[in-house]
TrEMBL record:
CDD domains: UDG-F4_TTUDGA_SPO1dp_like. SUPFAM superfamilies: Uracil-DNA glycosylase-like. Pfam families: UDG (PF03167). This is Type-4 uracil-DNA glycosylase. Residues 63-215 form the Uracil-DNA glycosylase-like domain. SMART domains: UDG, UreE_C. It comes from the Bacteria. It catalyses: Hydrolyzes single-stranded DNA or mismatched double-stranded DNA and polynucleotides, releasing free uracil. Keywords: 4Fe-4S, DNA damage, DNA repair, Hydrolase, Iron, Iron-sulfur, Metal-binding. GO terms for molecular function: 4 iron, 4 sulfur cluster binding; metal ion binding; uracil DNA N-glycosylase activity. InterPro entries: UDG_Type-4/5 (IPR051536), Ura-DNA_glyco_family4 (IPR005273), Uracil-DNA_glycosylase-like (IPR005122), Uracil-DNA_glycosylase-like_sf (IPR036895).
């Protein structure tokens, strides 16, 4: 055996050898759980993905930002223009609001959460993603969840709720409720862009409900940390 080959047997830097050429371009071909070891591999794959038409128009696939070790995963809808340009989720106006909402209960967007989206590429003119696009992209989200192993998943808005849990109920009816899924606690919450359109802080308004939900989320996180 050549010494190079012998050395490569001990090389556990999986990203360096990860083959993205094998990406199934047909969305009907599944991407099995365990395909990826880390977010970088998912990112590499998504940036070459053509499982739906959005692969033709993206600048960057948007995988996530935040702390991959965090207990909370926040799932949004889809990248917008700022996200497509930067490759980072929630960096526009609704992202700024999301960061402020987290800060209001003492959580940091950098250290206490990981933020991702149901679909990784920007739909033209920011239209909502289609069911076909969501299905084509779902294996990436499921792999993110497997790798991150979050205890709590916050689903911002109806697309995230429908995309992950196939739950079609209106967000206004079930926001703030804990839903157990795959041994994790999920909570549907309002999407920050909805709060931008509804700025009142009066009782029983969307912003007021968001404040109640965030306090419940923080209390649950503290409770889970005490159990560790
Ligand atoms: N930016 C994102 O990345 N996702 C959203 O859902 C909205 C804005």
């Amino acid at each position: 055996m050549s010494s190079d080959l012998q050395l490569s047997l001990f090389d556990n830097n999986q990203s360096a050898t990860f083959q993205t050429d094998s990406i199934p371009a047909n969305a009907k071909i599944p991407i099995p759980p365990g395909t990826y070891q880390n977010m970088e591999q998912i990112g590499e794959h998504c940036n070459r993905c053509h499982r739906c038409e959005l692969g033709n128009s993206r600048t960057h696939a948007v995988i996530g930002r935040g702390n991959p070790q965090a207990s909370i995963l926040i799932v949004g809808e889809a990248p917008g223009q700022n996200e497509d340009e930067t490759g980072l989720p929630f960096v526009g106006r609704s992202g700024k609001l999301l960061d402020k909402i987290l800060e209001s209960v003492g959580l940091s967007a950098e250290t206490d959460v990981f933020i991702a989206n149901v679909i990784k590429c920007r739909p033209p003119n920011n239209r909502p993603p289609t069911a076909k696009e969501i299905e084509a992209c779902k294996p990436y989200l499921l792999e993110q969840i497997r790798i991150l192993d979050p205890k709590i998943i916050l689903l911002t808005g109806a697309t995230a709720l429908k995309g992950l849990l196939s739950d079609k109920r209106p967000i206004s009816k079930i926001r703030g409720q804990w839903i157990e899924w795959e041994n994790r606690l999920c909570m549907p919450i309002f999407h920050p862009s909805y709060l931008l359109r509804n700025p009142s802080r009066e009782p029983e308004t969307p912003k007021w409900f968001m404040w109640q939900d965030m306090q419940a989320i923080k209390a649950k996180l503290d409770e889970l940390k005490e159990q560790l």
